[in-house]
């Protein structure tokens, strides 16, 4: 009897740990159609700040009762912060021709700009719309340029109530955010401040 129960327990455990039941989804923005002017030059993108529910390994979603839920069978294929940061850096570069690289900066020549993105909401809502909102900051690394602080609020319809559809919506939202950052645009108000000029460096981009 004990042996039979033990066998059943092992089978149940094997079923729960079956890796084929775990789906992993990529954050991979589509290729941007068309090019926008290069207003950034070279820029280091700091690790994107995500809400706690969006930085976890499970794909989160909101239900009609307002709760944010997730399922351990549906995971992001990479660390969400790393995946979001790398995808955004690549998308900005593809859209504008700028050289945007996630930190740490790997090149010998320092970047001209520093980018910081603070996400306040990144979630498929109960109305089947993925919403990505927050603020981004572009600062001049050498001084003498213009620093920008802008807000963004992007909504992308989710085709179906599945993690795969959420993954597609996330990718599309990142592509839209990349164009906004590349063009220093988006909803909200720009706050521009002048930093002291660096007598040893010139920057014609702004």
From TrEMBL:
- Locate the ABC-type transport auxiliary lipoprotein component domain: which residues? 25-182
What the entry lists under Gene3D superfamilies is as follows: ABC-type transport auxiliary lipoprotein component (3.40.50.10610)
> InterPro entries, per this entry?
ABC_trans_aux (IPR005586)
What protein name does the entry list? Membrane integrity-associated transporter subunit PqiC
């Amino acid at each position: 009897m004990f042996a039979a129960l033990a066998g059943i327990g092992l089978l149940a455990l094997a079923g729960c740990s079956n890796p084929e039941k775990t789906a992993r989804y990529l954050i991979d923005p589509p290729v941007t159609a068309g090019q926008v002017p290069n207003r950034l030059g070279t820029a280091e993108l700091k690790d994107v700040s995500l809400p706690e529910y969006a930085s976890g390994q499970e794909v989160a979603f909101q239900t009609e009762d307002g709760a944010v839920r997730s399922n351990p069978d549906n995971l992001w294929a990479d660390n969400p912060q790393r995946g979001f940061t790398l995808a955004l850096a690549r998308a900005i570069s593809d859209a504008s021709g700028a050289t945007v690289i996630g930190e740490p900066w790997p090149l010998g020549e320092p970047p001209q700009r520093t980018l910081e993105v603070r996400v306040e909401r990144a979630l498929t809502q109960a109305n089947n719309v993925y919403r990505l909102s927050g603020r981004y900051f572009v600062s001049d690394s050498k001084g003498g340029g213009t620093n920008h602080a802008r807000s963004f609020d992007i909504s992308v319809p989710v085709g179906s109530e599945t993690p795969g559809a959420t993954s597609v919506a996330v990718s599309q939202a990142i592509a839209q955010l990349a164009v906004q950052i590349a063009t220093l645009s988006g909803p909200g108000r720009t706050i521009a401040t002048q930093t002291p000029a660096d007598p040893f460096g010139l920057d014609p981009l702004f």
